[in-house]
Amino acid sequence: MLEGSLELELNKSKFGPIKKSFIGALLPIIALAVLLALAFRQFGDFSFKDGLINAIPLCVISSAIAIPSVRNLAKHNKEFVIYEVSKIYHLPGLIFILLFGLSIGNLDELKRFKWIERFKPDELNKEVIQFKELTIEVAFLVRALFFLLFGYLIEMTEVLNADTFLWAIRIVFFIFFFRTIQLKLSRLPLQPLLFVAPRGLITILLFLSIAPANKISLVNRPLIIQVIILTALVMMIGLIINKRQKEELQP
């Protein structure tokens, strides 16, 4: 989140994208969570409350995967994804990081406030550039370590679990179905934003935070792993195809 927020510009023209990303991301999460909760109750005879608690981890986009994956996209597409990984979750830590990154990355825009002069923004800008480079390197290291550990802990029996695979396929289908509606309502182009809906670290952390009393058998490790892998594959293939189409259109 810090890595992405340092690249955002802070001015009045950004209020539109922020509003679009906030409303556009909130509605699909609510719709998908309710749909999955109803499905879990219908096919697993679980309570709606427990179904909703177990559905939420599957509805949240992973910033650890999404933000670095859109680094080479158009500026407005990248901004939409960054504002979408933080604003919707209402997690105090991510909101603070977003505001911190926006503040130090937009010192020139804040010069009109007298108290900013105390921080000597002209000199601080030089340090911000170095801080940004350091953040990119550290973020890459953290992501690499996480996915290395994640891959090491995955068992092929979980990836190939036939009992949960059909559920994973259906969940991934509805993830991109609601994302299509989200982008249409926000009047944004489907490509390449449609494909950027990966699940990852936040999905695992939310899944692990579910109290044992609220866990349901339909949402287990194999299902979580399959959804993470499938959404990552869709994003990878989609971004590759989009890049090739752009290259073909270029003279």
Structural features, described:
The protein is an all-alpha fold and 251 residues long. It has helices spanning 2-5, 15-44, 48-55, 63-69, 75-87, 92-105, 121-153, 156-159, 162-185, 201-208, 221-249. It has one domain: Na+/H+ antiporter like fold (Up-down Bundle). It has eleven helices and no strands. The longest helix has 33 residues, at 121-153. The radius of gyration is 20 Å and the shape is globular. The two termini are 36 Å apart.
Tally of individual domains: 1
User: Unreliable segments (pLDDT under 50, ≥5 consecutive)?
Assistant: none
What distance lies between the first and last C-alpha atoms, to the nearest angstrom?
A: 36 Å
The count of DSSP E runs of length 2 or more, i.e. the number of strands, is 0
Strand content: under 5%
> What coarse outline follows from CA principal-axis ratios?
globular
Task: Give me a quick take on this structure.
This protein is mostly helical. It is built from eleven helices and no strands.
